[in-house]
Amino acid sequence: MPEGGASISKPSAGPAGTGAPEGTRGTGRGGKPHTAPDGTAGAKGRTAGAAKGAGAAAGRAVPGRRTSLLVTLLLGGLTATPPLAMDMYLPALPEVTRSLHAPAATVQLTLTACLAGMAFGQLLVGPMSDRWGRRRPLLAGLAVYVVATALCAVAPTVELLVAFRLAQGLAGAAAIVIARAVARDLYDGVALARFFSTLMLISGLAPILAPVVGGQILRVTDWRGVFVVLAVIGVLLTVVVWVKLPETLAPADRHDGGVGETLGSMRRLLADRVFTGYTLAGGFAFASLFAYVSASPFVVQEIYGASPQTFSLLFGLNSIGLMVMGQVNGKVLVGRVRLDRVLGVGLAVVLVAATVLLLLSLGVFGETGLVPVAVALFVLMSAMGITLPNTQTLALLRTKHSAGSASALLGTTSFLVAAVVTPLVGIAGEDTAVPMAVVQLASALVATACFLGMCRPWKSGTSTKGGGV
What we know:
There is one protein chain. Helix 3 packs parallel to helix 9. The chain has 17 helices and no strands. By secondary structure, it is an all-alpha fold.
């Protein structure tokens, strides 16, 4: 579909009380009324304005029900890009160390490079999507992602593999940041929280299937075959986006300014203490999760002697826990319990699970096998199902315009913090799980401190409700 394809008008949202930053209520750019972040005031004006913008772009709006299903499926596929790029490759990490004659810490840099690329790539692509719309930056990013992934498959040295993984991450960032920006284009309030939980259901299939598929690929080929499969998936995703995904940001809603306006927008977002608090809390929670992603192949396979297939099954089980809790969050909790209260419970569970993992790794309970460690990891991963979507929702509800820039800051923070902490999990070698547990616990503590110290959820002026108490 060309750039002038149909834009999608936003559905009206249910109530979700929030402490929005000063100046976000009332009238948007160009005098267009828009909804207050609580999703109640001005809903009629916002919907009419969105429909008007859609009509200016294409002369008609895509029917809401059909569009919602289509966009949900496509955005789920786009948000699956990071777990596909990371998780399908995880069972091959020990083999890469042997194939390229590189130490484990160096091979883990291939994960760090991809993470860093995704972090900085979002910072670039997010503002671009606010200026030029969502489709063009997304398609360009996916095309480069396919090329970089193919180059990973033929990398002759670990140094080149790290470089190609960096390029893969930079390009793949477009899928992550624009998927969140499109969601913010379409939804508000409680609807946004529920939509993120739905995305987690769809994208949650990727970490379940990816390591299992990766393990099976290793039965018939080596680690390079994993990247060949990833490149093919990238091609298919690019084609589907080109044919099926319409533009969601009407020309009237785009930013005309250059670098100065982009930096000013980000500066205003970061000046909002509560937005920054949710962003940092989500970033460090993600770091705790990614410490597991980076270290678990060595912990499960090298320390506890599990096969790549057993590791893949355990990894998939943990992803099921994350996905199920995401649905509990979206279908049961949102609209009934304050979102920040749910977030607080999620962070508390992560803290407990990380503490237990550290005690197990230190041998406080004596010799333990794989089962207790696997249970603790399952609890930690499941808690992420109510932690990560709510940090994103609570942060994005603080901004009405510049959704691309806000999404970029969210994603950049998460991936950058994860990229920094990932090498730490291998600092003591491959024979101990203590570094993984320490990083997980420290990250969870910082996330909780940011949430309590900066968001101050007990104050009504900074707490966002999911519709009820």
